[in-house]
């Protein structure tokens, strides 16, 4: 909880790169923020490290094992009904073929095309930081 009484959640997410492309996932009709695009991941469970959370969530959501090979600065964003701190990690696929267990769709995009998606608002600074690292400017 925050001082103002709204829920504050800690969420991990992965920038999964393969062959110069980045994986984005679209939330489904029955999820909160339907049809928004996000980086796969999810809420950190009690007693879990951020890395453990991310590996668990990615396996649950996509059926793949990942190797985490870096992280970007965490960002905090206030949605109307809750606050989120998003912990982004760089990752690549270790094993498995992606099967969508929760998302409506997924897409592999070159970094410069990422801004064309309708992202969950909390993700925008993460995408901006990632693109800056890739040498791509985002408005
Ligand atoms: N996984 C993920 N969640 C994000 C991102 N950006 C963002 O705002 N979120 C929000 O962070 C929350 C993550 O929750 P979750 O994925 O673990 O679980 P969920 O939406 O199914 O929520 P629920 O289990 O409480 O119903 C959601 O409200 C989601 O909209 C992101 O890039 N990745």
From TrEMBL:
What organism is listed for this UniProt entry? Desulfoprunum benzoelyticum
Task: Identify the EC number(s).
Answer: 3.6.1.55
Q: Has the keyword tRNA processing been applied to this entry?
A: no
Q: Per its UniProt entry, what is the enzyme's top EC class, as one word?
A: hydrolase
Query: Per its UniProt record, what Pfam families does this chain match?
Result: NUDIX
Q: Name one GO molecular function term.
A: 8-oxo-GDP phosphatase activity
Known InterPro entries for this protein? MutT-like (IPR047127), Nudix_hydrolase (IPR020476), NUDIX_hydrolase-like_dom_sf (IPR015797), NUDIX_hydrolase_CS (IPR020084), NUDIX_hydrolase_dom (IPR000086)
The answer to whether keyword Hydrolase applies is yes
Catalysed reaction(s)?
A: 8-oxo-dGTP + H2O = 8-oxo-dGMP + diphosphate + H(+); 8-oxo-GTP + H2O = 8-oxo-GMP + diphosphate + H(+)
**What sequence ranges are listed for the domain Nudix hydrolase?**
6-131
What protein name applies here? 8-oxo-dGTP diphosphatase
One example of a Gene Ontology biological process annotation = DNA repair
Q: Which cofactor does it need?
A: Mg(2+)
Entry's family note: Belongs to the Nudix hydrolase family.
SUPFAM superfamilies recorded for this chain? Nudix
Task: Could you list this entry's UniProt keywords, alphabetically sorted.
Answer: DNA damage, DNA repair, DNA replication, Hydrolase, Magnesium, Metal-binding, Mutator protein
Q: PANTHER family from the xrefs?
A: 8-OXO-DGTP DIPHOSPHATASE, NUDIX HYDROLASE FAMILY PROTEIN
């Amino acid at each position: 909880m925050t001082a103002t009484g709204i829920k504050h959640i800690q969420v991990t997410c992965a920038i999964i790169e393969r062959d110069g492309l980045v994986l984005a996932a679209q939330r489904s009709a029955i999820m909160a923020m339907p049809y928004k695009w996000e980086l796969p991941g999810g809420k950190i469970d009690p007693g879990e490290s951020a890395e453990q959370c991310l590996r668990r969530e990615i396996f649950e959501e996509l059926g793949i094992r990942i190797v985490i090979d870096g992280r970007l600065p965490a960002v905090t964003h206030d949605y109307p009904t809750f606050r989120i701190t998003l912990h982004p990690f760089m990752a690549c696929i270790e094993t498995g073929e992606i099967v969508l267990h929760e998302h409506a769709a997924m897409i592999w995009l070159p970094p410069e095309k990422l801004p064309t998606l309708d992202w969950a608002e909390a993700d925008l600074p993460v995408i901006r930081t990632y693109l800056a690292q890739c040498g791509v400017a985002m408005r």
